[in-house]
Amino acid sequence: MSRTTLDTPPTAPDAHTPLSHGLKQRHLSMIALGGVIGAGLFVGSGAGIAAAGPSIVIAYAVSGLLVMLVMRMLGEMSAAYPSSGSFSAHAERAIGPWAGFTAGWSFWVLLCTAVGLEGIGAAKIVTGWLPGTPEWAWVALFMVVFCVANLAAVKNFGEFEFWFAALKVGAISLFLVLGVLAVAGVLPGTDSPGTANLTGQGGFLPHGSEGLVVGLLASVFAYGGLETVTIAAAESQDPVQGVARAVRTAMWRIALFYIGSMAVIVTLVPWDSKEVVEKGPYVAALDHLGIPGAGQLMNVVVFVALLSAMNANIYGSSRIAYSLVERGQGPKALGRVSAGVPRVAVLVSCVFGFVCVLLSYWRPDDVFPWLLNMIGAVILVVWIFIAVSQLLLRRRVEREAPEKLVVRMWLFPALTWVALAGMAAIFVLMAREPDTRVQLYSTGGMTLFLAAVGYAWQRARAAR
After folding, report:
1. pLDDT at residue 36, as a whole number
2. Burial annotation 178-189 (CB, 10 A radius, 16+ → b, else e)
3. Which residue in 54, 181, 285, 445 has a CA-CA distance of 20 to 30 Å to 345?
4. Of 19-28, 99-108, 211-220, which gets the smallest average pLDDT?
């Protein structure tokens, strides 16, 4: 593929493909709103609180700022060039086919593995409600339901996510209202904790800077799912405006749902309470308030969040795979489309996810941990591709088609470089921590392997 071809892509790379445009604006708006409330927030934040204590609020604020910058860069490119390949297509356009190949297939592996992990998490909750039932059977049931829904039509994915997101947004909004009332001391039957939990039990930084670093790394990976809206936008009725609206509201959504809820939790509940990790921080906070049944209700919300993430990741992985094949970077069979849906890609993504589930039972001590380590830092690799692509594409778009800059990165290029520096700093911090060092090296190995394969593929195509 020549550089000229990359410089002059059609306005919407998927415009001439048989994918449908069945997502309505209400679907896209709710996907954007609910996508930020992921399973990582409900499930993974407890470990971050245990490591960082009350300073987890600082950790989420710092990582949240980085995510806002990444979303702004991705939104700028996705509004200019809507594509189901999202950042993978942008990386190919800006850097070259090998970059799109590397970013796309590494993200596909991440999403497919995450489908299995979220299925296991949801199954654990159900087996807590129905003891004695096999976990793998529940995972299989969830996989079949969402696979069938995604095979039928894209509007099914949109409807599932619309109602899932509505429940998540309603639940976390209610949690924030109750939490703020309790902190203020006006919730009936509760006394305001004041600053006792923020300054007691070792203070605001109970484990010092090392604890804050661990909390920061945990918070970075809790923001997964924000990319889905830019993938889904290509199948909406108005991709450009849909992306623009989602990106412009990202700041307050992250500030409210992530940073706000962490502040409420560590103010209400002692950070070293074992329930924060065992039950999850949201359930622990509601139980602490003594609201009858509230903790169990939050378990239902966590269950829905996991199912929502499963549904979104099946969708996202199939569209990334489809886009890669459409651009000549994968097996042609994955690109077959029927009734506006890349059904082979949906099936293969689901099968890969279920194989990951089986590996968690068959090879829990070697193959499965290796797979988890391999995807551990993929999201950071993707963010680097996004930042580098935006640096290169922005100048090109300003020169050739400035009217496409519906969304603009703030203070370009200064904040893009700041974001890249932040990502480099996270890599350094990961290399310092024993628990994350293995993830960093494993992801690095997979990335280098994919880059080499992508470059060889690029050279072979050029030779032909």
Report:
1. 66
2. bbeebbeeebee
3. 445
4. 19-28
Domains of the chain: which residue ranges? 22-463
Q: How far apart are CA 414 and CA 410, in angstroms?
A: 8
8 A C-beta contact, residue 97 and residue 454 = yes
Spell out the alpha helix ranges (H) of 327-366.
Answer: 343-362
Residue 21 gets which letter from DSSP? -
Burial 58-84 (b: 16+ CB within 10 A, else e): bbbbbbbbbbbbbbbbbbbbbbbbbbb
> Which class would CATH give 22-463?
mainly alpha
Structure tokens belonging to residue 21:
């445009």
Contacts of 378 (CB under 8 A, 6+ apart): 106, 107, 109, 110, 443, 446, 447
User: Whole-angstrom Cα distance, residue 218 to residue 302?
Assistant: 18
> Would you state the structure tokens that stand for residue 349, as one six-digit string?
């993504």
* pLDDT tens digits, 324-372: 998 989 888 888 888 888 999 999 999 998 898 888 888 887 787 888 8
Helix, strand counts (H, E) of the chain: 23, 0
How far from 167 is each of 15, 262, 291, CA to CA, in Å? 33, 19, 19
Can you spell out the DSSP letters for 142-155? HHHHHHHHHHH-HH
pLDDT value, residue 229: 80
User: Cis omega before residue 413 (within 30°)?
Assistant: yes
Name the pTM for this structure.
0.89
Q: Say how far apart CA 254 and CA 262 lie, in whole Å.
A: 11
